[in-house]
Design a protein that fits this description.
- The complex is a heterodimer of chains A (about 425) and B (about 325).
- By secondary structure, chain A is an alpha+beta fold.
- Chain A has 2 domains: about 5-225, 3-Layer(aba) Sandwich (Rossmann fold); about 240-400, Nucleic acid-binding proteins (OB fold (Dihydrolipoamide Acetyltransferase, E2P), Beta Barrel), CATH 2.40.50.140.
- Chain A has helices at about 45-50, 95-105, 110-120, 135-150, 165-185, 195-200, 220-225, 230-235, 345-350; strands at about 5-10, 20-25, 30-35, 60-65, 65, 80, 155-160, 185-190, 205-210, 210-215, 240-245, 255, 260, 280-285, 290-295, 300-310, 315-320, 355-360, 370-375, 380-385, 390-395.
- In chain A, helix 2 (about 95-105) packs across helix 3 (about 110-120) and helix 2 runs parallel beside helix 4 (about 135-150).
- The two termini of chain A are about 15 Å apart.
- Chain B is mostly helical and about 325 residues long.
- Chain B has a domain at about 110-285: MetI-like (MetI-like fold).
- In chain B, helix 5 (about 110-140) packs parallel to helix 8 (about 185-190), helix 5 (about 110-140) packs across helix 9 and helix 5 (about 110-140) packs antiparallel against helix 12 (about 235-250).
- The radius of gyration of chain B is 26 Å and the shape is globular.
- The chains are: A alpha+beta (about 425), B mainly alpha (about 325).
- The interface of A and B includes residues 80, 84, 85, 99 and 172 of A.
Chain lengths: ~425, ~325
């Protein structure tokens, strides 16, 4: 029995906006599931429906096998951590943590014991007498966690709990949240817009866009086998380079004015059951980490002009441009929904750098802005998408252990495996 | 996992115990630091001086009646009329006159009894109005229900109706409801405060974040409990403002008690002093004018005291720390 099950969960606001569209997914006992997507994709609305803070338009929310659509939040046996913590400013840390127990009529002695145990488990023991305004951001965040764990809930909901912390603290708190999750073992639904957070924390990740579930599966699967352009672009940082391309009669990839021989690679994965005929457009994707500098003439070599170089110490991001047309706006934060390809004139209007791709290179790589370099595309590491639907038609072969069936419908059902 | 090797977050420095005086001082200094010095306003020196003088003159003008009442509360009736109004004259008979306030002079009624009446009406009426306004304001600010907008507009509309326009219907319906000469005739209408509801709604809207209510619901609190334990403490400065407004309104109310009371033992201060003022003209009692002046002074003192007491609660920053940034 799953701890949380959403079936065709839909939210339509009075304004007619569909925030969540037939969302179906389940969270097993003790599982940590991350709902991720760009802002406004409906992930918080979905979470609030699970919490009972937002009425459901249609579909069902079940907790522990019971449909709870019409059950008030206080009877759902869940705890929630809010984005802004929502601590009671006039109460001490002790009373903030104890408020739920007080409401539940837990006797004072037991309450005291549980508050102290919860506080100790997250390192708040010395701060119990403080008011929220006397705490740092990280401490407030932990009080919010403490308030949730003291109840020992069946279900744990978190709405971007780390987004107000500075970058260093956020990394540390990721581990802390996971540690707490392991210790209490409650099924957790965690909302974030940060794909790094999703990748590092989730047992499974549900990617949402415009209220529609795009893909639901373990992090590695989303990374290695994104079902559509949206997921391909959303998961991974820097994002995947995507270009419009085609194959010619010899099986070489035509990318703008360049013709890239894929060498002896076993028939490119794109030529699967739904293989691309010569000349038929495809969208080819290559992850920045799958590009490397190589000598001219290597099979799969691609000539590119370096526009900008970011040296991060451990690696180098080289932003380059080629004359192929990118699929979608690489520079646009709001990624278009699956299947959209930027119209030609719009793509032309983008500044040069924005039209380019990015390669993640060795820190010792000798690249500088303005240089022309040769990058190697590993034929085995290419992703292919159908430009008409945006759906994946081929994944890097090396990672496809037993490759699951390629997607066939735009809106995917839950539970990819 | 790589993240676990990251250093723990920096602990906040332990808060040094701070006395109230230290905190006041710190807050005063912080406030001073956040002010822009007048030199940086971009106004010419002369303009600033002129504006300051004008403001000072206006303040003086406003304070003249208070000064007059303070000075003349020490005079005899003859001196009130015959000596310079803004300076003292002997004999000093403030305490003599003050003593008379405790006596029933000429059968018109006892000042101290009116004082008690006013206090009672103000506490019940003003306090009741504040309680109702707090509930109503929070409800209108944080609950959507059928007609909530209409209700609010009706309340705004009620702000515009002068009580004078309601005299006749009020009197007639009170007569039927046996509220003439009843303290409820005074208290119940005083508990209706459209301005209080309006202010509480606005204040609740600003001071009680929806997220906090959500959190309390998740924490299993019922709606009444959320109001009392979460919302109300955050609304305290607003509640006190409304309390002050309502208490002052009842304290100074002349028209309503004039309408509903016709025995002088039920009078509040306003009506009692009005009675004295009417009688003073023709009465042979040479103490009535001084009693009016001292009575007037005693009437305003509690309101000033109330304001000074409540003032220290008008400190913002209650919400600090609840919501990030």
């Amino acid at each position: 029995m799953s701890a949380i099950a959403l079936a065709d969960l839909t939210k339509v606001y009075a304004t007619g906006v569909t925030a969540v569209d037939r969302l179906t997914l389940d969270v097993a006992d003790g599982e940590f599931v991350v709902l991720v997507g760009p802002s406004g994709c409906g992930k918080t609305t979905a979470l609030r429906m699970v919490a009972g803070l937002e009425p459901v338009t249609s579909g069902t929310v079940s907790i522990g096998g019971q449909v709870v659509n019409d059950v008030s939040p206080r009877r759902r046996d869940l705890a929630m951590v809010f984005q802004n913590y929502a601590l009671y400013p006039h109460l001490t840390v002790y009373d903030n943590i104890g408020f739920a127990l007080e409401n539940a009529g837990v006797p004072k002695a037991e309450r005291d014991r549980r508050i102290r145990a919860a506080a100790a488990s997250i390192g708040l023991s010395d701060l119990l007498r403080r008011k929220p305004r006397q705490l740092s951001g990280g401490q407030r965040q932990r009080v919010a966690m403490g308030r949730a764990i003291v109840r020992d809930p069946a279900v744990f909901l978190m709405d971007e709990p780390l987004s107000n912390l500075d970058a260093k603290l956020r990394v540390w708190m990721r581990a802390e949240v996971l540690r707490v999750h392991k210790s209490i073992g409650a099924a957790t639904l965690y909302v974030t817009h940060d794909q790094v957070e999703a990748m590092t924390m989730g047992d499974r990740i549900a990617v949402l866009n415009a209220g529609v579930l795009q893909q639901y599966g373990p992090p590695q699967e989303l990374y290695a086998r994104p079902v559509n352009l949206f997921v391909a672009r959303f998961i991974g940082s820097p994002e995947m380079n995507l270009y419009e391309a085609a194959f010619d009669e010899s099986g070489a990839l035509v990318l703008g004015s360049q013709r890239i021989s894929l060498g002896q690679a076993p028939s490119p994965p794109v030529i699967g059951e739904r293989g691309a005929a010569p000349g038929q457009p495809v969208i080819v994707g290559v992850r920045p980490e799958d590009l490397a500098l190589c000598p001219v003439g290597t099979p799969g070599a691609l000539a590119a002009d370096v526009a900008a170089v970011e040296r991060l110490g451990s690696e180098v991001h080289a932003y380059f441009s080629i004359d192929a047309r990118p699929a979608g706006h690489p520079a646009d934060g709001g990624v278009p929904s699956a299947g959209t390809v930027v119209p030609a004139d719009e793509a032309d209007a983008l500044p040069g750098a924005a039209r380019g791709g990015v390669a993640r290179l060795d820190p010792r790589a000798a690249v500088r802005p303005g240089a022309r370099v040769t990058l190697r595309l590993d034929p085995a590491r290419l992703y292919f998408f159908d430009p008409a639907t945006g759906l994946a038609t081929g994944w890097p072969a090396s990672q496809a252990t037993p490759a699951p069936a390629l997607p066939s419908a735009p809106a995917l059902p839950s539970g990819a495996n | 996992m790589t993240v676990s090797t990251a250093p723990p977050p920096p602990a906040a420095p332990p808060a040094p115990p701070e006395t109230r005086r230290q905190r006041r001082r710190r807050e005063r200094l912080v406030a001073r630091d956040s002010e822009i010095p007048v030199e940086l306003y971009g106004l010419p020196r002369g303009t600033i001086t002129l504006l300051t003088v004008l403001a000072f003159l206006f303040a003086l003008f406003t304070l003249i009646p208070i000064a007059w009442i303070l000075i003349n509360s020490t005079k005899t009736q003859a001196n009130i009329f015959e000596t310079f109004g803004f300076w003292f004259a002997s004999p000093f008979q403030f305490f003599h006159t003050f003593g008379l306030l405790f006596q029933n002079v000429d059968g018109y009624g006892t000042f101290i009894q009116w004082f008690g009446n006013t206090a009672l009406y103000a506490v019940l009426g003003g306090g009741g109005a504040t309680v109702l306004a707090a509930f109503a304001g929070y409800g209108l600010a944080r609950f959507r229900f059928r007609g909530s907008q209409m209700t609010f507009y009706a309340i705004i509309g009620a702000l515009l109706v002068p009580i004078t326009a309601l005299t006749v219907p009020l009197y007639l319906s009170y007569a039927k409801a046996h509220l003439i000469n009843s303290i409820w005739g005074m208290v119940l209408p005083s508990m209706i405060s459209p301005i209080g509801v309006y202010l509480m709604r606005t204040y609740a809207d600003i001071s009680v974040p929806r997220e906090l209510i959500d959190a309390a619901r998740i924490d299993g609190a019922g709606e009444l409990r959320i109001f009392l334990r979460v919302a109300l403490p955050l609304m305290v400065p607003g509640v006190l403002t409304v309390l002050l407004i309502n208490v002052v309104a009842v304290w100074n109310n002349y028209f309503l008690p004039l309408l509903i009371f016709n025995v002088n033992t039920k009078y509040p201060l306003t009506v009692g002093l009005g009675l004295w003022s009417n009688r003073a003209v023709n009465s042979g009692n040479a103490n009535l004018y001084p009693m009016l002046v001292v009575g007037g002074l005693v009437t305003i003192v509690p309101l000033i005291a109330l304001f000074l007491i409540l003032q220290r609660y008008w400190r913002g920053g209650m919400l600090l720390g609840s919501i990030a940034n």
